[in-house]
Amino acid sequence: MYPIFVIVMALLLAVVFAGHYLIYYSTVKFFSVATVQTKAILGLVLLGLALSFFVTSVLARLSENFVTRTLYFLSTLWLGVATTLLAVFIASWVVIWISKYFSWQINLIALGVVALIFSFAYSAYGIWNAYNPVIKEITVNIKNLPPQWKDKKAAQLSDVHLGHVLRAGFMQKVVDETNAQKPDIIFITGDLFDGMDGDLAQLAKPLSNIKAPLGTYYVTGNHETYLGVENAYSALKTTPVKTLKDQLVNIDGMQIIGISYPERGFSKDIGQIIKNLAYFNPQKPSILLWHDPTKIDQVKQAGVSLQLSGHTHHGQIFPINLVSRLVYGKYYTGLHQEENYSIYTSNGVGVWGPTMRTGSRPEIVIIKFK
After folding, report:
1. pLDDT tens for each residue of 44-92
2. Residue 306 falls in which region: left (phi positive, over 0), alpha (psi -120 to 50) or beta
């Protein structure tokens, strides 16, 4: 466990520092920074910004208060801006290389100014976008759909990431917008919390007002394992949210299966767990709540009708979408229907890290069944 953690952290640090170095190098070249003193100041500032995310993450975990939350918010926000700026600078270098091939004259300062303006404007849009989830409506065909489920609506909420930045006010907004859709049932598919300590019950309090006649069902994601799943369960005790821990409930002929995320260092044989569930019948319709869009073959073979997942955030910030697509393949976002099996991978309604979304819209998913 710890060697893997050290390796992951080392790789993350290497990527962050390499990215900041390229921002430093591009800034020096585009704006003809010549003096040693100016270069040193720029280098130190970018070094501090590169380290800020790691430092403020530790501070916010050691002492969760307004000051540490604010510092964490600003450092993660810079991480998002830096990602966008890095992508734009790389695109600018591509323009320069192309211009050399065609003997075009490029004004480096003008190109640098355009890169900065675009990056900050796009980042500003990303901040607004993160706080304004959309309603995403989809229709799913399910074989042998019970008559009672015809024309019913389900809402899927995934990856809310309540924590240092997204607080109870954001959760209340999500609850209000979900209730406005008048869903018959609600599914929360993991990462409701962001993996931080503190008053989780206060963050989850707006869920006391969530309304669905057939109930609200929740499974854990990987971030709940960081804070301790029992803390997450405890925070939901005073709400109507029902937690499914490798369990099945039958609602009007529909099998609702919830598989909790494995604890760190462990894995789960999802297919076998489903097959071993008491009263599970692969010939009857079923909905699986499982946090990430994996174990597809196992789930298909088990006979599940619909899998609801999240986790990927659809990359959240461009161009991380491209990485997410490589890791999770075609299932990294959206609806995929294959014979009697369907999967929907939600973009998520919240954010992790930078409070920005430039690669996708955050969404509250409304599912209609046919």
Report:
1. 999 999 999 989 988 988 888 889 999 999 999 999 999 999 999 999 9
2. beta
